[in-house]
UniProtKB/TrEMBL annotation:
Cross-referenced InterPro entries: CopC/D, CopC_dom, Cu-Rt/internalin_Ig-like, Ig_E-set
Organism encoding this protein: Caballeronia ptereochthonis
Cellular localisation: Cell envelope
PANTHER family per UniProt: INNER MEMBRANE PROTEIN YEBZ
Pfam entry (one): CopC
GO MF, any single term: copper ion binding
Single biological process term from Gene Ontology: response to copper ion
Keyword annotations of the record: Copper, Metal-binding, Signal
Name listed for the protein in its UniProt record: Copper resistance protein CopC
Superkingdom, taxonomy of origin: Bacteria
Signal peptide: 1-28
Gene3D superfamilies in alphabetical order: 2.60.40.1220
Residue span, CopC domain: 33-123
One of the record's GO cellular component terms: plasma membrane
Length: 124
């Protein structure tokens, strides 16, 4: 009976430890909360693309680029993490022609964990 009690405590302790480790790993990565222009949107030519993430970014390693339908990068400016709101990154755009554009983002959390993704929008 005593060994069964110890085994139960060990299983509960292990489950708690795994839950805490998993929760910490999930919080270590940042993901987009809002995107302007939004994914799939059709918009007038925007002056910038801005993404707000669910946690602070490491400015030196986070990036944002925009490409046209042929895959050519259209932004000449480098993306900048907002110094007042470090969960936001934006890149200025030149005047865009009608067509499809793809936003490519790399977000490095302040603890060094990296996520990345793409989404598209159309200019009318």
């Amino acid at each position: 009976m005593n060994s069964r009690h110890h085994l139960r405590r060990l299983v509960i302790w292990a489950a708690c430890a795994l839950s805490l480790a998993w929760a910490g790993a999930v919080r270590a990565h940042v993901f987009p909360r809002t995107q302007v222009p939004a994914a799939g949107a059709t918009v007038s030519p925007p002056g910038e693309v801005r993404i707000v993430f669910d946690g602070p970014l490491e400015p030196a390693f986070s990036s944002l680029t925009v490409t046209d339908a042929s895959g050519k990068q259209v932004n000449a400016a480098k993306a900048v993490v907002d110094s007042q709101h470090q969960e936001a990154i934006a890149v200025e755009l030149p005047p865009l022609k009608s067509g499809h554009y793809t936003v490519h983002w790399i977000a490095v959390a302040s603890d060094g964990h990296r996520t990345h993704g793409d989404y598209g929008f159309d200019v009318k």
